[in-house]
Amino acid sequence: MIETARLRLRPCRQEDKQAFATILNTPAMMAELGGVRSTEAIDALVGKRIADQARHGFSYWAAELRESDALIGTCGIRIASNYPGTPVEAMHEMGWRIAEPYWGRGFATEAARATLDWAWTHLPVTVIAAWTTARNGKSWAVMERLGMTRTPELDFIRPGHAAGDPFGAMIVYTIRRPA
């Protein structure tokens, strides 16, 4: 478990599935992720996070408010195992999703900073990446606040998406381990 001034990051649990389906699977939340998904798809995503945690000892974790234990999103790091043949295949990917009622309050940046600190302490990696669509300015603004650098040579099209699909064209940012 990781704690910040306002947040607690902890491994996802089976009982988180309904909450994630409610808070993270909204039209606004999913606008840059291809749209609202089925309950089964969200359940599978949470299941993957649980499996990643068991396999690697880290994953995208559940983000809770420390003061109330309210689940407000997810943030963490994972191995990008579902991007075969792309420049980011097998990289350590950091990501976040914070529920709409909590947007604009710095929670994504706070959680991502804590994730980076955890990664540099616990993982033998030299580079961590994050990616999003070119239209998702809020997400790449978080990347820039974290000190990440736009790395266009790693940009890619997500498997299963056509070259012109705006949900498939990913722009990549990276950050190197501090000296």
Folded structure, characterized:
The protein has 179 residues and is α+β, with helices and mostly antiparallel strands. It contains 4 helices and 9 strands; from the N terminus they run ββααβββαβαβββ. The chain has a domain at 2-125: Aminopeptidase (3-Layer(aba) Sandwich), CATH 3.40.630.30. It has a 5-stranded antiparallel β-sheet, sandwiched between helices. Strands 6, 7, 8 and 9 form a 4-stranded antiparallel β-sheet that branches. α1 (17-23) crosses α2 (39-56). The two termini are 25 Å apart.
Keywords:
single chain; Aminopeptidase; 5-stranded antiparallel β-sheet; alpha+beta; about 180 residues; about 25% strand; 4-stranded antiparallel β-sheet
What are the SSEs and their pairings?
Elements: E1 2-3, E2 7-10, H1 17-23, H2 39-56, E3 60-65, E4 71-79, E5 92-98, H3 107-122, E6 127-133, H4 137-145, E7 149-150, E8 156-157, E9 169-176
Antiparallel strand pairs: 1-2, 2-3, 3-4, 4-5, 6-9, 7-9, 8-9
Helix pairs in contact: 1-2
Tell me the Rg in angstroms: 15 Å
Please identify the top-level CATH class of one domain.
Alpha Beta
Instruction: Report the total helices.
Output: 4
Tell me the CATH architecture of one domain: 3-Layer(aba) Sandwich
Supply the CATH superfamily name of one domain: Gcn5-related N-acetyltransferase (GNAT)
**Helical percentage:** 25-40%
Side-by-side strand order of the widest sheet: 1-2-3-4-5
Uncertain stretches: none
Which structural class matches the secondary elements? alpha+beta
Described by strand count, sense and barrel closure, the largest sheet is:
5 strands, antiparallel
What is the 3D form? globular
Proportion of residues in β-strands: 25-35%
| Distance between the amino and carboxyl termini | 25 Å
Query: How many strand elements?
Result: 9
Overall pLDDT: 91
